[in-house]
Design brief:
The chain is α/β, with parallel strands linked by helices. The protein has 2 domains: 240 residues, Type I PLP-dependent aspartate aminotransferase-like (Major domain) (Aspartate Aminotransferase, domain 2), CATH 3.40.640; 102 residues, Aspartate Aminotransferase, domain 1 (Alpha-Beta Complex). The chain has 9 helices and 14 strands. It has a 7-stranded mixed beta sheet with strand order 2-10-9-8-5-3-4. Strand 6 and strand 7 form a beta hairpin. Helix 2 crosses helix 6. The protein binds pyridoxal-5'-phosphate (PLP). The site of pyridoxal-5'-phosphate has 12 residues, from helix 3.
């Protein structure tokens, strides 16, 4: 088998090797049916089984009951920045946004095109290095919903617990930490996540929506933009991204086989600790870019003493087989994305490399 690199890319990102090998085995002829998943009708019996299993396995993983619909849509998390306000802002036409990074800003920007946006809190003045405290949130009890971003992929911060929003529906962009731990679904009205960070290939976006919210979707909406139409048609209003759903389904089975999301969370905490211990224990050579209590388990961001050293670090790391360590172009520095599928061994080897690099530079 060909050698694989340690892929620290923020997204599209690493997938479990077991999933890739299984997909490879079935690529030419899915379970001996004579065609690949890419070539079969999305309304045929085989694909119907694939999508129903993906739905059932995702429900098992997160404990999602019948009061929610699960949709597998397209357009990335970016389309959700529009679909959320278009469907859910009426009739009050005002919503609260908690701004903790670039993606949250983009979500708020689209919402402003639909109605009144109240920025309930923003940590922009602190370079998004932290998550706001509950006491900082200026929430409107009459808002149509509260939107927040559970993990800030670019800035490397993550909410430890959900914001408390009373009876207002809570909406979460979980694109970069979806399925990294179990959630209390009672707290949520809608969760969306582009697949390419933690659950599958680019092209699929999972939307988990409380069925009671579907009555807000108005007939005047363009058809693809309407959650109710997708829910009524069980994701089959138009041709969904069949291959992406199939791979995401394999990832759900992989997570169940690994012992579920509590086990995954344990591993994620352990992996992140190895890396943060190396950063915080480096006598200031490596500097975390966030306050430690809000540091992300998924995207670990840090700096070196100079930009020249950062460039050298990235170049030398590449030669050792560590890819994707360059921070987002808007912030620089180093970003190690260590999603569910990223092996602990890769984190340990990166830490060893960091230790050697510091000694030599
Ligand atoms: C990557 C990302 C997005 C954008 O996803 P697309 O699929 O490119 O639209 C949105 N939100 C968060 C938190 C992300 O990490």
């Amino acid at each position: 088998m060909e050698k694989r690199i340690f892929n620290f890319s923020a997204g599209p990102a690493i997938l479990p090797e077991e999933v890739l090998l299984e997909a490879q085995k079935d690529l030419f002829s899915y379970k001996g049916c004579g065609m690949s998943v890419m070539e079969m009708s999305h309304r045929g019996k085989i694909f119907d089984g694939i999508i129903k299993e993906a739905d059932a396995d995702l429900r098992k993983l997160l404990g999602i009951d019948d009061s929610f619909s699960i949709l597998f849509l397209q357009g990335g998390a970016t389309l959700q920045f529009s679909m959320v306000p278009l469907n859910l802002m009426p009739p009050a036409n005002k919503a609260d946004y908690i701004v903790t990074g670039a993606w949250a800003e983009k979500a708020a920007k689209e919402a402003k095109k639909v109605g009144t946006v109240n920025i309930a809190a923003t940590t922009k003045a602190d370079n998004f290095a932290r998550i706001p405290k509950q006491s900082e949130l200026k929430l409107d009890p009459d808002a149509s919903y509260v939107h927040y971003t559970s993990n800030n992929t670019i800035f490397g911060t993550e909410w430890r617990t959900e914001p408390e929003v009373g009876n207002v529906p809570l909406i979460c962009d979980a694109s970069s930490d979806f399925l990294h731990k179990k959630l209390d679904m009672n707290k949520y009205s809608l969760i969306y996540a582009g697949a390419q960070k933690n659950i599958g290939p680019a092209g699929v976006t999972v939307v988990i929506i409380k069925k009671s919210l579907l009555e807000r979707s108005q007939d005047t909406l363009h058809t693809y933009m309407n959650y109710k139409i997708h829910a009524d048609n069980e994701t089959m209003y138009n041709t969904p991204t069949t291959f992406g759903i199939y791979i995401a389904g394999l990832v759900f089975k992989w997570l169940l086989n690994m012992g579920g999301l509590d086990e995954m969370y344990k591993r994620n905490v352990e992996k992140a600790k190895i890396l943060y211990d190396a950063i915080y224990g480096s006598d200031g050579y490596y500097k975390g870019t966030t306050v430690p209590e809000d540091a992300s388990l998924m995207n670990v961001t840090y700096r070196l003493p100079s930009e020249e050293l950062e460039k050298k670090f990235i170049d030398e790391a590449k030669k050792k087989g560590f890819e994707g360590l360059k921070g987002h172009r808007s912030v620089g520095g180093i970003r190690a994305s260590i999603y569910n599928a990223f092996p602990k061994k890769g984190v340990e080897e990166l830490v060893q490399f960091m230790h050697d690099f510091k000694k030599n530079n």
